Amino acid sequence: MPRERGCGLLAALLLLCAPALAVSVAAEDAKEQIERLLSQESEKSGKSSKINIELQEVVFVIQSQSNSFHSKKAEDLQHNILKQAEKLGKELPRVLLIHQMDRQDGAWTILPLMPELSAFYGRNSSWIFFCEEDTRIHVEKLLETLRRFDKSKEWFLGKALYDEESTIIHHYAFAENPTAFKFPDFAAGWALSIPLVNKLANRLKSEPLKSDFTIDLKHEIALYIWQKGNGPHLTPVPEFCTDELNSHKGAHCATMFSNFLPVCGDPVKKEDIFVAVKTCTKFHRDRIPIVKQTWEGEAAFVEYYSDYAETSIPTIDLGVPNTERGHCGKTFAILERFLNRSTLKTPWLVIVDDDTLISIYRLRKLLSCYDPNEPVFLGERYGYGLGTGGYSYITGGGGMVFSREAIQKLLASKCQCYSNDAPDDMVLGMCFSGLGIPITHSPLFHQARPMDYPKDYLAHQIPISFHKHWNIDPVKVYFTWLAPEMEDSFTEKNQRHVREDL
What we know:
Largest sheet: 7 strands, mixed
Low-confidence stretches: 1-46, 488-502
Mean pLDDT: 87
Strand order of the largest sheet: 14-13-12-15-20-17-21
Helix content: 25-40%
Shape: globular
Structural class: alpha/beta
């Protein structure tokens, strides 16, 4: 990974010092001479040179994705950072896009990249700053913020999130006092000092990551860094914000978050989305009525797939016996029916569980950003064994969205279930990974209930789905969080107030 350099001040210094400096430019002592000259220049020219040097010490890492919509957004952010940096000084920082880095299948989990980041930037940088493609960065304010922290020490900086109660997505960690453990909101950006990056890299060399699940990356990274009390806690930084760009709080923020729900033009037509609901006989009476009371009316085409054909609903028996877990056979039968048997030729298929709450209205807006002619597999991304050559997958409870093109490539590959009760979402992840088709992640899909996520995290989202009916009124959850009428009847402030009261 080559180090990007501007030519301005360094080139001028090299010319001033030629030919003596030119002769030894490749040697280590020449590097020290240049740094000394830069330091002297900084004392003369003041603030701009100070920023100029510090820009070189920050490596920006954008948590990008290879899908064309997402890669374009990440490249726009990369350009914006470099443009700001150019105005502040002539030496540009390094701005890396995760989807362009090695180990693509696991790069999004960040930790496997630590040895690489340490090797390339461990000596000539001070900070690695991570952000999402929708994070907006005020580069000068970010540098001012980082100056407050001693770069020779181990720092883990970010906007702090915490659980108000123990939750399944965090394996009920810190059950006695869940608010005590803080983890970063990636939307606000987060930073690691190089001493901490180097420490993590060394630890990973001696203790490889376990081959297990990645469910909530921000929480799992914080746990790994904390190392059961042997590593640093997250240090909350008030300048790392998720307020809107035009917010009155913006004056003090080094970062902000620009996007709630991506919209790239007119929403896709209702008739362009086919929704498949997975159910079974024992849930016909309690779960299906919830779907009909909530989101069914938003969809033009909905079919219910069960182990028993009940005309009053109606449900369709695919000839696949019900299984207590996995449902791979049922899901692949749905995919085959969509592609080969249905007279409808909709470009998008959505597969949900019978206890998934979803906003088809918002999904139509989101899908305006994706090209159905590309193989798109969209939802909430999880990972399995990514530190040891595993794969990513879309977790099924939050909803799985397929372009017709993705399904065609999948079924043509002959990749299939190893048993009817295999985990369908994981098998799909393995299949698409083998085809080289990347998973496309959206944080607006949720595998769990609203109360399983920090309020501050949900506050900068317009969610598309939630999952599970445990200990909640699912109809109330739908109308509080997902109903289309919310767009017109509440301002964002009122929505947030209602949600906090839930």
